[in-house]
Write a structure and sequence with these properties.
Layout: H1 2-8, H2 17-38, E1 42-51, E2 60-68, E3 74-76, H3 81-84, H4 88-107, E4 113-117, H5 125-137, H6 141-144, E5 145-150, H7 151-154, H8 158-169, E6 174-180, H9 187-193, E7 197-200, H10 212-227, E8 231-234, H11 240-249, E9 253-254
Parallel strand pairs: 2-4, 4-5, 5-6, 6-7, 7-8, 8-9
Antiparallel strand pairs: 1-2, 1-9, 2-3
Helix pairs in contact: 2-4, 4-5
Length: 278
């Protein structure tokens, strides 16, 4: 009883040095992102998604959210997204990503662009207002916008996601299921979702040319996409031999550092990679 009383008043996350360090780091990360949002130090970095076998022309680009810290360093989403996902700052980041993505689509009328969002932003009034505003100003934007939702996020509220997707697909918007295979998808929901694009998680793609387990798992994920008439994208393609293997295996599109790193400078303005078009 005395042992329980000893710990009773210790705040959550402070009961061990490691837990306290993690909590402090998360708090610091959240504050850094909040500052970036407050000062509009938020931008998109663009990465090409290329057709397998025809890699000089992008099928579309993904706009990946970045923030600047107080030293001016560009911080990628993977370093903060888990910390802010459930917070109001997470919703603000989704709104900024959407607004910046739609502005880019308005500026470049032949472009197709994917923008990431959390399922938690469905029904968020500000997010929906931003989308409505841009769709009214340029009716072609919907047909060129792809919204990416991670598998883990979609599975939190699958019924809500299904209705949301159905409504926006009527406006021409496409949907990509991001990080497929990383979570615990209920295949019953996959049947109901009608995603247009399925992005196979990078853990199955890295080193696939020489990894029999990843070859089997990727083939299984690919067959699911085929069954549901979804375009397949392999994420995290980093080596020539992996790109060659995936192309031979019939994966539709490839994305990763082997082709290009994400760039805050729009890569379609360079001569090297032709602009993606609808």
């Amino acid at each position: 009883m005395g042992h329980k009383r000893k710990w009773a008043n210790i705040p959550a996350g402070h009961d061990s040095p490691l837990a306290y360090a993690v909590t402090a780091r998360d708090r610091s990360t959240l504050e850094m992102v909040q500052q970036a949002v407050q000062h509009n130090q938020v931008m998109l970095a663009y990465q090409a998604v290329v057709p397998a076998g025809r890699q000089s022309r992008a099928t579309f680009y993904e706009g990946l959210i970045r923030v600047l810290d107080d030293t001016g360093r560009v911080i990628p989403a993977k370093e903060f997204i888990d910390v802010i996902e459930t917070t109001e700052t997470g919703r603000a980041i989704d709104c900024l990503a959407l607004d910046k993505g739609l502005k880019t689509l308005a500026d470049y009328p032949d472009l197709r662009l994917a923008v990431n969002m959390s399922a938690r932003s469905i029904g968020y009034k500000r997010w929906n207002r931003i989308l409505s505003k841009w769709l009214k100003s340029d009716p072609t934007i919907g047909e060129r916008l792809i919204l990416e939702i991670t598998e883990s996020s979609a599975m939190l509220i699958p019924e809500l996601v299904v209705g949301f997707m159905s409504e926006l697909q009527q406006k021409g918007i496409s949907f990509a299921l991001d990080d497929f295979g990383a979570g615990f998808t209920s295949f019953r929901y996959l049947r109901d979702f009608y995603f247009d694009i399925l992005k196979i998680d990078g853990q199955f793609i890295r080193g696939i040319a020489t990894d029999p387990d990843n070859q089997i798992l990727t083939a299984a994920l690919q067959s699911i996409a085929l069954q549901f008439d979804m375009l397949t994208v392999a994420e995290s393609v980093e080596r020539r031999e992996d790109a060659a293997y995936l192309t031979a295996a019939g994966i539709d599109c490839l994305q990763g550092y082997f082709f290009s790193a994400p760039s805050v400078h729009p890569p379609w303005l360079d001569a090297g990679l032709t602009q993606a078009s609808a």
